[in-house]
Structure formats: structure tokens, C-alpha cells
Automatic annotation (TrEMBL):
Recorded GO CC terms: plasma membrane
Species per Swiss-Prot/TrEMBL record: Stegastes partitus (bicolor damselfish)
Sequence intervals crossing the membrane: 30-54, 66-96, 102-123, 144-164, 193-213, 250-270, 282-302
InterPro entries: GPCR_Rhodpsn, GPCR_Rhodpsn_7TM, TAAR
Domain called G-protein coupled receptors family 1 profile: residue spans: 46-299
Protein name per its UniProtKB record: Trace amine-associated receptor 13c-like
């Protein structure tokens, strides 16, 4: 009986202070481990390919692709942090309070930066579709680089302020050895909800509703005048079609993003995770991390340039001199 009780502890040698392992079906643990391992490998590999593609090929150095690069960087780190999430599958954290706090802190920064990047992608598509004549002058590479830098800096500052107490005193909210917990007060939590979830999601939804309304009206206008356009007008039509295709592609990215993240945020921010069964919590968590490997898959389906870049990378043509000048569009 004593052996059985010790086997249920995270640290059997610490009988009085160790956390107990939650009772979960062995099949569920194995399935969760396999799924998270698959997500980790797929997420890090695919997003690394996106990072290499956009960074290497000069044709891809556009404002919109810089935003995709920022998103790929954040998704890549999400894949890295999934490895740490796998350590919590059996309900125990074995790396100590400092590593727990650092892991949670960096994970929150990356998630916040990812959400901020989604907002900027929505703004970019809004400007391209709703104000196409001034898009190239208003949205430049320098401005996008500055915006991306501000987004990441804001994420670091925000999470530092929210988790300051945890950073100064790691493990202050843990009740037993083997627990990985960070906590913030009510006001900070409310600010986090508004700045990291409700506000960005509202902006994303409103901008994309406006984008698709304008895109639909432009599509109708183009169809009605397609027979009478000049050669110059045909070029304009092609440009508008290209922008709309990009809007649809990134719209899919945004919708998938909301589908994957909303359940996780709704559960964690309302405290309902304690009321759900372990299977539901595992599903919501896997869905949250799975979003980060879906974006490159979406690019592969919708962006021919990504498929060309993959061929260059897989066949090692990327190592040839002047490969950065290759035509991938």
C-alpha cells in the first residue's frame, strides 16, 4: 500500500511536500504524448522552413511577408515550448520553480506576440483592400519592421509587468513540489484579458468583416466592368485579384487562429479548466498548440512561392551562390 502511495507522488522521497499525480487513464497519457510530440516536430520543422524561405529569398522581402515571418518565429517558439508542455502530461513538473516561471513567462510572451502579429496582418489586409491607392506609401518595409519590433517589445513589457511577482519570487504560488503555477492579481488579470485576448480578437474580427465586405463589392464591380477595361485597367484588376487572394488566404489563417485559440482562452481565463474532465483539458491544450503548425500548411496550399521555396531547400539549391536572387514568385 505504501509503495502504491509513493508511486502516485511526483517526488516519492518528499512524502510531506510532494504533489500527487492526477489519476488519468494510461491510454489518454500515451495518446496525448504522441499527439504533442507530433505537433512539436511538425511545428518546429514547418515554421523553420517558412523562416528560411522569407529570410533568404529577396523576392519575398515584402511588408506582408515580414508579418508572416514574425508569425512564423512566434509559432516556431511555440513548437519549442510544446516540449516543456509534454513534461506536464503526467501532472508533475520536475525542472524546479525557476524553470517553471521562465517557461511560463516566455510562453506568454510568444503567445502575446503571435496575437499582436495577427492584429497587424488584419490591419495590413484592411489597408490593401480598403485603401489600395495609398497602400504602398502607407505600408512600407521600414514601418512594418518598426511595428513588428514594437509588438514584440510590448509583449515582453506587458508579460514582465503581469508576472513580475512570479519572476522575483519563483514558485511563490506553488502549494507542493512538482507543481508549475504562476498567478497574477485580479486587476492584472483583467488587463491581460483585455489587452491579450478580447481587444485583439475584436479588432481582428471587425477589420476582416470590413475587408470581406469591401472585397465582395470590388469583385462585383470588376465583374460588371471586365468587358470594358483597358490594358492598364486589366493590370489594375489583376493587382486587385492578387490582393483579394492574399486577403482570403490570410483570412483562413485568422479564422483557424481564432478557432484554435478561443476555446483555450475561454477555458483558462474563466477558470473552467478545474471543472472540465482531463480529456477535455487535453483536447483544448492540443488544439491551442496545433494552431502553430497549421499556418505553414495553409501557406503550402495557397502560396505557390512557398512550394517553390520548399523545393529549393529540400534539393539544397539554396546553398548555391546567388540563390537568394532566384525567382520564386
Amino acid at each position: 500500500m505504501e509503495v502504491l502511495e509513493e508511486a502516485e507522488l511526483c517526488f516519492p522521497q518528499l512524502l510531506n511536500s510532494s504533489c500527487k499525480k492526477p489519476k488519468r487513464p494510461h491510454v489518454q497519457l500515451v495518446v496525448t504524448y504522441v499527439v504533442l510530440s507530433f505537433i512539436t516536430v511538425l511545428t518546429t520543422t514547418l515554421n523553420l522552413l517558412v523562416i528560411i524561405s522569407i529570410s533568404h529569398f529577396k523576392q519575398l522581402h515584402t511588408p506582408t511577408n515580414l508579418l508572416l515571418l514574425s508569425l512564423a518565429v512566434s509559432d516556431f517558439f511555440v513548437g519549442i515550448f510544446t516540449c516543456f508542455q509534454m513534461l506536464l502530461i503526467d501532472g508533475c513538473w520536475y525542472l524546479g520553480d525557476v524553470m517553471c516561471t521562465l517557461y511560463q513567462y516566455l510562453a506568454y510572451i510568444v503567445t502575446s506576440a503571435s496575437i499582436g502579429t495577427m492584429v497587424m496582418i488584419s490591419v495590413d489586409r484592411y489597408m490593401a483592400i480598403c485603401d489600395p491607392l495609398r497602400y504602398q506609401t502607407k505600408v512600407t518595409q521600414r514601418k512594418v519592421q518598426l511595428s513588428v519590433s514594437v509588438c514584440w517589445i510590448f509583449s515582453v513589457v506587458l508579460q514582465t509587468l503581469l508576472l513580475w511577482g512570479n519572476l522575483v519570487h519563483p514558485g511563490r504560488f506553488t502549494s507542493c513540489s512538482g507543481e508549475c503555477v504562476v498567478a497574477i492579481d485580479y486587476i492584472a488579470g483583467l488587463a491581460d484579458i483585455l489587452l491579450s485576448f478580447i481587444g485583439p480578437v475584436a479588432v481582428i474580427v471587425l477589420l476582416y468583416l470590413r475587408v470581406f465586405v469591401v472585397a465582395a463589392s470590388q469583385a462585383r464591380a470588376m465583374r460588371s466592368h471586365i468587358a470594358s477595361v483597358t490594358v492598364r485597367g486589366s493590370v489594375t484588376v489583376m493587382v486587385k485579384k492578387s490582393e483579394m487572394k492574399a486577403a482570403r488566404t490570410l483570412g483562413v489563417v485568422v479564422v483557424v487562429f481564432l478557432i484554435c485559440l478561443c476555446p483555450y482562452f475561454c477555458v483558462t481565463l474563466t477558470g473552467q479548466d478545474a471543472l472540465l474532465n482531463p480529456s477535455s483539458v487535453a483536447f483544448v491544450t492540443c488544439l491551442f498548440y496545433f494552431n502553430s503548425c497549421l499556418n505553414p500548411i495553409i501557406y503550402a496550399f495557397f502560396y505557390p512561392w512557398f512550394r517553390k521555396c520548399l523545393r529549393f531547400i529540400v534539393t539544397l539549391q539554396i546553398l548555391q551562390p546567388d540563390s537568394s536572387e532566384a525567382n520564386v514568385l
